[in-house]
Amino acid sequence: MSEANKVGSWKLIGYVAPGSTSASTAGQTTNFDYTAGETLALTAAAVDIAEFNAITWQAKNRVALNDCAVANDNVWTVTTAAATNGNSVTYTAAVAANCSQLTPSFDKIGK
Description:
The protein is mainly β.
């Protein structure tokens, strides 16, 4: 992003997903399936930052984790979007509504 003002695909930037042995658009571990977002998975070329607002990383659990059952809509995501300054991006991490973060949050104590 900082060199070309573009967002590159996982393969283009050399990102190796957990459980994978090479730069591609997917990886798999015991607990998760990792995939690039649709925009980056479908294009080999870099996308101009000014036009970008998409999921760039996602993970779906393969096993039940805490209160998060195995389901197609239980996905962890990172969305990358153009920042208002026009030359950088923002990242937003999200957890599926049916799941809570896996690190201790103590939000269930007393409930």
